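Repro:
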Amino acid sequence: MAAPAEGMPCWVDAMFTDVEAAKSFYADVLGWTFGESATEFGNYTQAYADGRAVAAVVPPMPGQETPSAWCLYFASSDVADTARKIQDNGGQVLMEPMRVGDLGSMLLAREPSGTTFGVWQAGRHEGFEKRGEPGAYCWAEVFTREPAKADAFFPAVFPYGAKRMEDDAMDFRVFTLGGDPVLGRMAMGEDFPPEVPAYIQVYFAVPDCDAAVAKATERGGQLHFGPMDTPFGRFAALADAQGAAFAVIDVGTTQGEMPAMSEVS
């Protein structure tokens, strides 16, 4: 596999107080299996769909009390250079560039509108071995109350183009690489409770959205929205039993026409 292009979403992981419960939950909902915990990297444990790496789970470091959340990583050819771009464009580097053995190098950051994300410079670990198929990462969207800040930040840090959905009722933008959509941006409206911070919603593909929702809620998860039919697939937004938000989408079940999109200069 070639390393993913600059700015391409390339990996997801999440921190769970009860890693074994998280493994059991996602095994049931997404069909994941799990490898051996890497004790040299804080018991970081990779998840697999059909034998291919799709995500990872990890326990918090001693003394760390961070709410469970999925973190999306963007590919970089030079994580130190990306750190400079993040800071030069109003972002905050939360974890300075750090080498992870021979696997690669990473950082964690927050962009000016409030969402937290990671950056990954590939070494031996290049990222997703499977994407867009059942059990694997499919899509992600930045949800923010300050869309203008996100709209300025992401194309300044990564080589993105942008398209705007031609819909007066919805402020939605798509960032592109080589013309292909790689990341969405949704403005949070009044339907979002004020205590909900800006976040990046990660979508996992499933063969049956309703079955995945039923399994997730049976296992203690919470349904936040949907299931809903769209031109992109039938999807639902959820939180797992430890509170980490995620979405599931069946891209084979679509309804309606694709929305018109216009280039943003």
